[in-house]
Amino acid sequence: MEATTSAAEKGQLSIHTDNIFPIIKKFLYSDHEIFLRELVSNAVDATQKLKKLAGFGEFNGELGELKVTVKLDEEAKTITISDRGIGMTADEIKKYINQIAFSGAAEFVEKYKEKEDTRGNIIGNFGLGFYSSFMVAREVEIITKSFQEGAEAVRWTCDGSTEFSIEPAQKEDRGTDIILHIAEDSEEFLMKYRLNEILEKYGKFLPVEIEFDEKIINNPNPIWTKQPSELKDEDYIAFYKELHPMSEDPLFWIHLNVDYPFNLTGVLYFPKLKNDFSIKKEKIQLYSRQVFITDEVKDVVPDFLQLLHGVIDSPDIPLNVSRSYLQSDSNVKKINGYITRKVADKLSEIFRNDREGFEKKFDDIGLFVKYGMISDDKFGEKAKEFCLVKNLAGKHFTFEEYTEKVKENQTDKGGTVVWLYASDVQKQDTYIQSAQKRGYDVLIFDSVIDPHFINGIEYKIEKTSIKRVDADTLDKLIEKEIKLESVLSKDDEERAKKLFEETLGGAPKLTITVEAMPTDEMPVVITIPEFIRRMNDMAATSGQKSMFGDMPTMLNLAINANHAVTQKVLNATDPSEASALIRHAYNLALLSQGMLSGSDLTAFVQQAVSRL
């Protein structure tokens, strides 16, 4: 039999000290707006319970319209959250409200766990959510009537102290009204736009309709709650627009749906990343049973996957008592690994089934794939099958395909296959042309992540070395058994080197060598030592200042022993003529590396014109 309340009853709230947290007033939640999420979630919870009981045959009445209503009365300074769920008897109020931290949801799940897995539909978890109302209210009223036949309505009031009052009330329909009398320091929540903002944020996809300001503010059946077989491409795109109204259409998506060894649903979208590594990451929203929790998902989703957009929903992700942040445990690690595997499998599937379409998308998703390869070893192993490189002709290759393409001509004397690449096609054009004259193929690595990517994958590909086309002379980039012969004698080579050293003594530190190169290559080739160039590139993409400043502390300068200019320098009878030739060749080499600018560039152009 239920207890009836014929007269007002006074009492003290009973606190379970074994699991109490600093919950009352301003200590339970750091963000006061959470009160509305908690109370609306509780109302949804009560509604879901009634649906379950009807399904079990324990409620035979009319369900009628089941929705949660939020009403604002600015004049009375109240916010009311109403539902037509199971309601409470006087005894249940004493049990669930007066005994803080007793979880009604936990008891309900335990009671009915043999009939059906109710966990996915019941939101409440700690029995503390109701008390978040005291962060913003000076007084809270509960007017409630149980769904049970013959139940009487009850009114409970409390001013935030441990004292409460409970008495009979008038209420026609089953369900619960929570009335918050807003405190002076929380009157920001008496503004319509503010409540709408909070409901949009936390209740956008709650599983029961939420009405505020005479309109339904949520979508109770988002696509992640449905089976992929029920959905078409336009459904996924429409939902993406619902999440990100101003964004371009996504490239493709992954529908997550697993119930063992953990429960996880969701949809992850691949946006067009282009070459923007500074793209905002907080675009994956985490939900627990359709209640928004956070968009900081770094523990659940690997860092590189945070470039994706979408929604993840799992009741098995452990949350702290205020449901405001995650707590790491084995489930989080399993979910993290599962999502990584699903993404890799999806990319692999698209690559196998539609190679042409995948190649067209790769300029947009290459940044993501490369980031994943260097930051996650498990993803990297799978991605070796579908990560693509592109050459200057615009053709795409897997790692294995590209090695097969160039190995005949670009294998050095030690048996290592050398991949040549350009990071700036215009600036490195002279070096590219020299490489192409020898039949070498040149890749394009010009995205912001490529300096890190090259470092990360080089050691993962057997017997392969990746070198920028301007990192050294071609004969040193790909050393062969047979070398060109120098037309100069050893004495002439030493004399040429000395003349260059004397003339360029005031230049940045140079390591000068004389090398035999084809006659149609440049008279002087300037290169930056590979390790310095890579350090500079990675520093630049990380937004950090290079450890070497604006100009490298060391440059390699190779004099082309077989070039006509070198012969002219050696044959010059006037030292000033030799010096002018050397400086012109040096400036031409600097220009080809993009190192000539300002007054030096102007002077060089003027000199070049005067020579015409």
UniProtKB/TrEMBL annotation:
The keyword Nucleotide-binding applies. The keyword Nucleotide-binding applies. Residues 31-172 form the Histidine kinase/HSP90-like ATPase domain. It comes from the Bacteria. InterPro entries: HATPase_C_sf, HATPase_dom, Heat_shock_protein_90_CS, HSP90_C, Hsp90_fam, Hsp90_N, Ribosomal_Su5_D2-typ_SF. SMART domains: HATPase_c. SUPFAM superfamilies: ATPase domain of HSP90 chaperone/DNA topoisomerase II/histidine kinase (SSF55874), Ribosomal protein S5 domain 2-like (SSF54211). Keywords: ATP-binding, Chaperone, Nucleotide-binding. Belongs to the heat shock protein 90 family. NCBIfam families: PRK05218.1. This is Molecular chaperone HtpG. It comes from Runella salmonicolor.
